Amino acid sequence: MTRLRLAVIGWGRLGKACAEALRDAPELALAGIVRRADALGAASSSPIRGVPCVGHVSELEAIDAALLCVRSEAAPGVARELLQSRVRLVECADLADGALRAHHDEIAHLAKRYRVGAVVGAGWDPGLLPQLQRLFELLIPKGHSQVTRRVGTALHHTAAAENVAGVRGALCSELRDPDGGTHRYVYVELSRGGDLERVRQQIEGDPLFADEPTQVLPVDDLAALEQENRGVLVERLGDGVGGPHASLILEARLDPIAFTARLMLDAARSLSPHARGAWRYTPCGLVPLDGPG
Ligand SMILES: NC(=O)c1ccc[n+]([C@@H]2O[C@H](COP(=O)([O-])OP(=O)(O)OC[C@H]3O[C@@H](n4cnc5c(N)ncnc54)[C@H](OP(=O)(O)O)[C@@H]3O)[C@@H](O)[C@H]2O)c1
Known about the structure:
Order of helices and strands: EHEHEEHEHEHEEHEEHEHEEHEE
Bound molecules: NADP nicotinamide-adenine-dinucleotide phosphate
Number of strands: 15
Shape: flat
Distance between the termini: 38 Å
């Protein structure tokens, strides 16, 4: 089996999630990681043993496609550079409406000009979620839609813990035990030099937390914890004269980064080696993206 060799461009949350998803995809291989020069200089070695980490994609051998995982504002420029170098790409940038259209138009223009394949919109939102919403509207043409985004449903910030010296941020969640009691977990991200034991004693001894058994747990990155606990509720409820009215509801608890990584790998698989021009990702296959001509 010839494995598709993919490069990850940008070693942030999505880049790491793509590398993780690649570990579970035997038909795909992580050919290398491309990082900015200053990030490369600060890191002593490649973040993954045996995988080259370089400053430019041209330093990697025999790449089949690049997964564009750089920050949104940098995505248009990096996409342009990749396409000009005739590197096939898969992208998912989350940009505001007008900027996203311009970004996709530019990719369509360059992919056609340089006769190289590119996939846009291979992510959760933008990407798959708007497609699911369109499907709901197609099936229930007369009705109303509602999308409720939940950020860290079970988690909430707690000033009582965040005001403790040595704590950069804290999130709290109360979970019900099987025996009916409640247990409180306080996740803390320590500031530089913060002493976990002192922080733990102060929080666990705070009268505000005396009502339930409270456990303090250190985490490296509070933002990542919130991200993991993201959810969305998509509702389409039929209305109009007569009945019964159809309804469609999608309730999802998800990590949008992990979902996006899986969708990017699927997009890379779907992009045939002979495909030219820009394509929009759908889980049922790629569809041509109409560019500005
Ligand atoms: N469609 C979706 O549902 C969805 C979901 C999640 C993310 N995304 C998109 O995925 C991309 C990455 O998101 P993320 O959460 O992984 O971001 P992130 O954690 O902020 O990481 C992005 C990486 O981009 C690189 N970078 C930073 N500044 C740069 C610059 N000026 N020029 C070039 N590269 C730069 C850095 O990598 P190095 O240090 O290695 O250079 C950084 O780690 C974004 O475009 C985001 O919109 C889309």
